[in-house]
Specification:
By secondary structure, this protein is α/β, with parallel strands linked by helices. Helix content is 40%, strand content 16%. The chain contains nine helices and eight strands. It has an eight-stranded parallel beta sheet with strand order 7-6-5-4-3-2-1-8. Helix 6 links the parallel strand 5 and strand 6. Helix 4 packs across helix 5. It is globular, with a radius of gyration of 17 Å. The model has no long low-confidence stretch (mean pLDDT 95). The chain binds pyridoxal-5'-phosphate (PLP). Pyridoxal-5'-phosphate binds next to strand 8 and helix 9.
Length: 239
């Protein structure tokens, strides 16, 4: 495994990028009238080695996002004992839900009742309920995963009854190439949807929206969780 010495230029660069992202997140949160603590940073470590995750954890990052199970599992194992929170943000396949239910703390891309059902059944009894966000194709983009906004209430109904899951909120990913005004319109629509669904029966506190290229717009529109990879870790190897 790659071990980065604490004072290496690589660590200094990582530290600088992390601090830069945190400062920009805090500024956007303040502009939207919120505290910086109201937005959680999920550092998306897909395509980067366990040693890089360890270095980021040493610099204070606590939440990590992964998209590919095969790559994520050995990393999670290598970092066992570091008290990190792991988020699965990739596409979900019904035949691969068990290791996700066993090894992750959050799953952001739930878009089918069948997947939710399996995650609930497969969540180990010794673990706390698995935190879930439903993925919404808020921009109506043909290439993006997620369900249509009109179908969200029905999925909330079926997921909120599952005993081993804790439904936390909604997630979206915007297509590339939108201008800032358009992005804010979509992020705002997701926030409105969350507000409509939030009730004492189904308390929802999470809007997982914003990536390297659009996280400030997302925070201005109420994001509580940003998923940032490239802007922290640089370019990654795609599988
Ligand atoms: C890869 C990925 C990210 C991070 O993207 P960057 O543009 O590198 O910040 C965020 N969310 C999801 C769902 C992803 O797959």
């Amino acid at each position: 495994m790659l071990i980065l010495p604490q004072n290496s230029p690589a660590i200094a660069g990582l530290n600088q990028r992390l601090q830069n992202i945190r400062a920009r997140m805090a500024a956007a949160a303040r502009t939207s009238g919120r505290s910086e603590q109201s937005v959680t940073l999920v550092a998306v470590s897909k395509g980067h080695a366990a040693g890089v995750v360890r270095a980021a954890a040493g610099l204070g990052a606590e939440h990590f996002g992964e998209s590919y199970l095969q790559e994520a599992l050995p990393k999670i194992e290598a970092l066992r004992g570091s008290e990190l929170t792991w988020h699965f943000i990739g596409r979900l396949q019904a035949n691969k839900t068990r290791p996700i239910a066993q090894h992750f703390d959050w799953v952001h891309g739930v878009d089918r009742a069948q997947i939710a059902q399996r995650l609930s059944e497969q969540r180990p009894h010794y673990a706390p309920p698995l935190n879930i966000c439903l993925q919404v194709n808020i921009a109506g983009d043909d290439n993006k995963a997620g369900i249509a906004a009109v179908d969200v209430p029905a999925l909330v109904q079926s997921v909120s009854g599952l005993p081993r899951l804790r439904l936390r909120g909604l997630m979206c990913m915007l297509p590339e190439g939108l201008d800032s005004a358009m992005r804010r319109q979509h992020f705002s629509a997701l926030r409105t949807l969350l507000r409509q669904l939030d009730s004492s029966d189904t308390p929802l506190d999470t809007l997982s929206m914003g990536m390297s290229g659009d996280f400030e717009d997302a925070i201005l529109e109420g994001s509580t969780m940003v998923r940032i990879g490239t802007a922290i870790f640089g370019l990654r190897m795609e599988p």
